[in-house]
Amino acid sequence: MPPAKAAAEVDYKEYSLAEEPYYRPITDEVALFEAAYGARLPVLLKGPTGCGKTRFVEYMAWRLTQGRGRRSGTPLITVACHEDLTASDLVGKFLMKGDETVWSPGPLTKAVEMGAICYLDEVVEARKDTTVLIHPLTDHRRILPIDKKGTVLEAHPDFLLVVSFNPGYQSVFKNLKQSTRQRFVAIEFGFPPEDAEREIIAHESGVSPADAARLARLGQKVRNLKHQGLEEGVSTRLLIYAGKLIAGGIGPRRAVRMALTEALTDDPDVQTALEDLAAAVIG
């Protein structure tokens, strides 16, 4: 199959962010991503659920607009991976339109063509035979074979592949194969330190600084229960949800029960432990 050049001009406005996303850097992740992007190295983001990986990708897509003449930011195409995701879902398929058969490109093909960041969220959820098709895009070739069209698409110079996964949920059946993993540089994410999480909760939820501080403190304590009945510590996302409920007029203890206790577990003993923590921290 002869290589086919990516389209020189593709309308990217549909996939560009209209406003700068809020993101609070924790360590040197911004500089690391910029270095990887400069070298066009595919990036693996690993970390627990709700720690800010997706928001980070959105922020970087906006930030990378600098010097590229794109007022709306670098286009970003996000794919939420799942076990039924097929290669055709990513690459594209032929569809009937009236009496004609037309080619409908998938999200990965669109990203390759327009020079977008393609973000495959929770990539281990996808079928193994689906993830294999990204391999030619993650080495020196930077190509996407389109078997149904009998062509090979060369990636736009600005194209970058980013994937994420949660190492805490690894199992024999859902893990990232070494043949795939060793094609990426990796940036590790964790939950923010208490002072940073306090800022994030206050900004994202609109709750008072005092309530944001209490929620951040509660989050730190709940994470100490990770090996005492919780599969994973409470996410920053859930703490923000609790803040939004409080800002909307729900009492702090009721908001915490709704956003944390009931959301995290159905185990009565663990729920009691969480409620005791909330009573001690929230009051």
List the helices and strands and how they pair.
Blueprint lengths: L2 E2 L24 H10 L4 E4 L6 H11 L12 E5 L6 H5 E6 L2 E6 L1 H8 L2 E5 L6 H4 L11 E4 L4 E4 L5 E6 L12 H4 L3 E4 L5 H12 L3 H15 L12 H12 L4 H13 L3 H14 L2
Parallel strand pairs: 1-8, 2-9, 2-10, 3-6, 6-9
Antiparallel strand pairs: 4-5, 7-8
Helix pairs in contact: 7-8, 7-9, 8-9, 8-11, 9-10, 10-11
Percent of residues in beta strands: 15-25%
Q: Please count the beta strands (DSSP E, at least 2 residues each).
A: 10
Strand order of the largest sheet: 3-6-9-2-10
Low-confidence regions: 1-9
Backbone shape: elongated
Class based on secondary structure composition and strand pairing: alpha/beta
Describe this structure in words.
By secondary structure, the protein is an alpha/beta fold. Helix content is 38%, strand content 16%. The chain contains eleven helices and ten strands. The chain has helices at residues 29-38, 53-63, 87-91, 107-114, 128-131, 178-181, 194-205, 209-223, 236-247, 252-264, 268-281, and strands spanning 3-4, 43-46, 76-80, 92-97, 100-105, 117-121, 143-146, 151-154, 160-165, 185-188. The strands form three sheets. It has a five-stranded parallel beta sheet with strand order 3-6-9-2-10, sandwiched between helices. The protein has a three-stranded mixed beta sheet with strand order 1-8-7, covered by helices on one side. A hairpin with a 4-residue loop joins strand 7 and strand 8. The longest helix is centred in the C-terminal third of the chain and has 15 residues, at 209-223. The radius of gyration is 21 Å and the shape is elongated. The termini are far apart.
